[in-house]
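Quick question, first post here. What does this chain look like in 3D?
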Amino acid sequence: MDTLKIYEELKGVFGEEGAKKLANILGIIYQEVVNTVTKEEFKELKNIVSELIEAERKSEQRIGRLEEVIQELAEAQKRTEQRVEELAEAQKRTEQRVEELAEAQKRTEQRVEELAEAQKRTEQRVEELAEAQKRTEQRVEELAEAQKRTEQRVEELAEAQKKSEERIGSLEISMKELAEAQKKTEIQIEKLTKSHIELRQEFGGFTKTMSYAFENEAYRNLPIVLKNKYNIEVKEKFIRTEIGNKEVNIFGRGKVDGKEIYIVGEAKLRVDEKRLKKELNIFKELNEKVKAIKEEYGDVEIIKIIVTHFAPKKFIEKAKEENIIVIQSFEW
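> Answer (accepted):
Ran it through. C-alpha cells below.
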C-alpha cells in the first residue's frame, strides 16, 4: 500500500498533520488486513474508507457553508442590534416629542379656556354696551326735547331782549346822571379815606405809646410776681431788645432753684376772645424768638411768658400746653 500517495491526497482535505495521521492509520489497517482479510474484504474495506473520506469532504463543505451562514447571521445580528439602537433612540425622540405635544396641548386647552372666558366677558360687555346704547338713544331723545324747549326759551329771551334794549335806552340817561353823582361821591370818599388814614396813624402811635407804657409797667412788677408765684428770681432788669433780627419785648436773666435761666416774653394789651385763632399766633412768634436766642446764646434753658391786661380761659389753657406762663396785670 502506498501511504505516501494517500498522504498527498488527504493533505488537501485534512491538512498535513491530519493527513499524516490518517495515512499512518490506514497503513496499519492495511497491514492488519493483509494479515487477516481476503482481497474481497479488503476491497470492501477500501470502499468504506473512500466513502468515509467522501463523507468527510461533504461534512467539511457543509461546515464551510455553515460557517459562512453563521458569519452572515452574525453580520445580520449586528445590523439588527444597530437598527434596534436606532429604533430605541427614535422611540426616545418620539416619546419626548409626544411629551412636548402633550404640554403644547395643555397650553392650547388653557388658552382655549382663557379665550372662552374672554368671549364671555366680551359678550357681557356687548350686552352692557347695548344697554348703554339704549340709554344714549333715550338721552338723545330727551336732549332733542330739551333743545326744542331751549329754542322756545331763546325766542322768549329774544323778545325780552328787545324790551330790555328799550329799557336800557331809558336807563342810559339815568346812568349819566348816576355817573355825575358817582364822581362827586368818589371825591368825598377820597377825602374821608385821607382822614381815616391820618386817624389810624394817630391811633397807631397812641397804641404803641400804650404798649410801651404797659411793657415799662411790666418791667417793674414782673420780678415780684415771678418770685412770689413761680419761685423765679430775676437777676437783671428786664429790657426790650433785638436778637437775631427779632424784636423781643421782654428779655432778662434769672435763677430757679439756683439754676441760671433766661426769661423771654411778649407784652399784649388785651387778648380778644372773638379773634382767638388769630391771637394764638403770638405762640408761634414767641417760639421763633426763643429759637433766635438759642442760636445766639447756645442751648440755654428759657422760660416763656406773656404779659397782658386780660386773657380768656381758652387762651390760658392753650398757653399751658405750650409751656408758656400767662401773667395778667391784676396779679401785681
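Residues 231-331 form a domain with the Trna Endonuclease; Chain: A, domain 1 fold (CATH 3.40.1350.10).
The two ends are 176 Å apart (CA to CA).
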